[in-house]
Amino acid sequence: MSTTQLEEPTRDLSEDELLRLGLYRQVVRIRAFEERAYRLFMEGLVKGTSHLSLGMEAIAAGFGEAMRADDYTFCTYRGHAHTLARGTPMAGVMGELLGRASGVCGGKGGSMHLTSVEHGAMGSYAIIGAHLPIANGAAWSAQVRDSGQVAVCFFGDGTTNIGAFHEALNFAKVWNLPVVFVCENNLYMEYTAIGDVTAVEHPAADRASAYGLEPIIVDGNDPDAVYEVAATAIERARTGGGPSLIEAKTYRHGGHSRADPGQYRPDEEVAAWLERDPVPTYRARLLADGLDEAALTEIETQAQADVDAATDVARAAPPPDLQAAYTNLWADGGSSWRN
Amino acid sequence: MTVTLAQAINRALADAMAEDDRVLVFGEDVGRLGGVFRVTDGLQSRFGEQRCFDTPLAESGIIGTAIGLAMYGYRPVAEMQFDGFSYPAFEQLVSHLAKLRNRSRGTLTLPVTVRIPYGGGIGAVEHHSESPESYWVHTAGLTVVSPGTPEDGYAMVREAIASDDPVIVMEPKRRYWMKADVELPVTAPPSSEALVRREGTDVTIVCYGPMVRTALDAAEAAEDEGWSLEVLDLRSLSPMDTEAIVASVQRTGRAVVVHEAGRSLGLGAEVAARVQEAAFYHLEAPVLRATGFDTPYPPAKLEQYWLPDVDRILDLVERSLAY
């Protein structure tokens, strides 16, 4: 912590500075959470598989800050970041990862199916492309209700090659839906380079014109840049301007999932992207732009404290009751008639 | 030589590719990575990127491509990375792969092999632990087999690739690391023949795929109770070796069917129907079913409770014997 901070004159932060502190808080919180999640996997506390957003935090952060509280988020199995970015409490998300009764889905969803309807986190979908048409449906409902809500739908580069992606984009354009499709292009479709299996260089942006959409590419490691395109696209959707397709270029710091060390990636490529780590680079930029280091440090300290507290709550929570396997299959809350 | 199920299937693919240039292996991450379960490990480096290749994440496209290749003389082996990932390909599998021969009055031959790692027991969750075999069995036009041993892993994959009909190989992923002392290549009876894996006199345990090992464990444990269980491994689910099932039940008078898939309209229902049709007067008790529950596959912490295990089998054996 800077020893000179007390000598500096206090001043009111501008709106822009408050926004940027909010973005920094988002990336730092997601980073801290994902690092902890990784450690807990290594401890064997998280069952099943998991997919981290380490290195990709700026996208969820930028959109999270640009969205209205009642907007909808649809995301994939790599969805811790997007769920947290909507304000879903960390303890509930951590509890879900650990499969505890305290999780946001009562331990029945796990890492890949985080959902918190009250925070607009309308589910994490673990089948490629499945949620794009679903996001359209949510957007359509918002349009019919004239609610001004926008659906933001995140997915990976691999999704651009499945039929549902193309069907959904066409539907969205034909119906002029308030939906923003966000392709997080981290260059790898699971374990395979996206370029090896895709007809075009930019898997999302190069397809946009086929659906009458503008090709939009943004630096997905730059929270300011992501926020700007997010705010523009969301505003367009909210005011009747229809759908957008945004391709955010980014990179996974780790492998595809828990068990994957990501060794199929060239060392120099990994090194180059680590240089562009969104957390330290954004921190440096904020300092260079005159933001107070103490404010940043406080955000970092608070994020760690929040993660510690969430971890403690999750560790202490019980697993789901065995009867949970029988609940909530039907609208009456149960699973009869057959069991 | 000690061989795992995964290694046996890998060797079967390699041997088939070496013998026949028309055999192509493709799917998500099967090439450079060698598959998420390493079942296709080394095939791309040995046979080249034209013979073993990575596809986009697009299961419908993968199966559609396989159908087209097969129409033109290839013998494609397509992998669905996990059971739950086969659903986007459902339309291609059910409406086209299964039916094109019939629809074309026999002029189109589709020697397609679809490999699907399936079932639970590895701490994965839904989409990654499911048992969708009933969908395929219910679909006329698809042969469906499931190996329960490394020997069968090798033999069934070779047989599937050699078949002129579409074959779905349901690979029990939790048994990929199961070992056997066997020299490859190995031959086995045709998969259409069910095999008695352990002889017994009191109750027939009908099983397949991942539950073969579980049923054998149950038979072992049953000895302590003084019960003699016969373990019948169906091997092929479609066609189903009704004769072998009936012959065994005629000897024992009792049957318990075991599968991970949910109970309703699972294979157990079909087995029970066939037994009562063909061996009604031999039955000493109703055919019982030890299965997964009729609920979505549970989170990892509930998996062991959900999956049929030795205890669930023995409970039903006891009920059958008490009848």
Identify the notable features of this structure and list them briefly.
heterodimer, A: Rossmann fold, 11 helices, disordered N terminus, B: about 325 residues, alpha/beta, Rossmann fold, 7-stranded mixed beta sheet, 5-stranded mixed beta sheet
Question: Secondary structure elements and their pairing?
Answer:
The complex is a heterodimer of chains A (339) and B (323).
Chain A lengths: L14 H28 L14 H10 L5 E5 L3 H6 L4 H8 L23 E5 L5 H15 L5 E6 L6 H12 L4 E7 L2 E2 L2 E2 L11 H4 L7 E4 L3 H16 L5 E6 L17 H9 L2 H11 L4 H24 L23
Parallel strand pairs in A: 1-2, 1-3, 3-4, 4-8, 7-8
Antiparallel strand pairs in A: 5-6
Helix pairs in contact in A: 1-2, 1-10, 1-11, 2-8, 4-11
Chain B lengths: L1 E3 H15 L3 E5 L15 H5 L4 E3 L4 H13 L3 E5 L10 H8 L2 H4 L9 E6 L14 H6 L4 E3 L4 H13 L4 E6 L6 E3 L13 E4 L4 E5 L3 H13 L5 E5 L2 E3 L3 H11 L2 E8 L4 H13 L8 E5 L7 H7 L3 H13 L1
Parallel strand pairs in B: 2-3, 2-4, 4-5, 5-7, 6-7, 10-11, 10-13, 13-14
Antiparallel strand pairs in B: 1-8, 6-12, 9-11
Helix pairs in contact in B: 1-7, 3-4, 8-12, 9-10
Please tell me about this protein's structure.
The complex is a heterodimer of chains A (339) and B (323). In chain A, helix 2 crosses helix 8. Helices cover 42% and strands 11% of the residues of chain A. Chain A has 339 residues and is an alpha/beta fold. The model of chain A is unreliable at 1-7 (pLDDT under 50). With 323 residues, chain B is α/β, with parallel strands linked by helices. Chain B folds into 2 domains: 2-181, Thiamin diphosphate (ThDP)-binding fold, Pyr/PP domains (Rossmann fold, 3-Layer(aba) Sandwich), CATH 3.40.50.970; 195-322, Rossmann fold (3-Layer(aba) Sandwich). Helix content of chain B is 37%, strand content 20%. Chain B is built from 12 helices and 14 strands. Chain B has helices spanning 5-19, 43-47, 59-71, 90-97, 100-103, 133-138, 150-162, 211-223, 242-252, 267-279, 300-306, 310-322, and strands at residues 2-4, 23-27, 52-54, 75-79, 113-118, 143-145, 167-172, 179-181, 195-198, 203-207, 229-233, 236-238, 255-262, 288-292. In chain B, helix 8 (211-223) links the parallel strand 10 and strand 11. The termini of chain B are far apart. Chain A binds chain B through residues 47-49, 99, 107-110, 112-113, 126-129, 158-159, 161-164, 189-192, 196-198, 264, 319-320, 322, 324-326, 329, 335, 338-339, and chain B through 28-29, 31-33, 36, 54-61, 84-85, 87-88, 123-128, 263-264, 293-296, 298-302, 305-306.
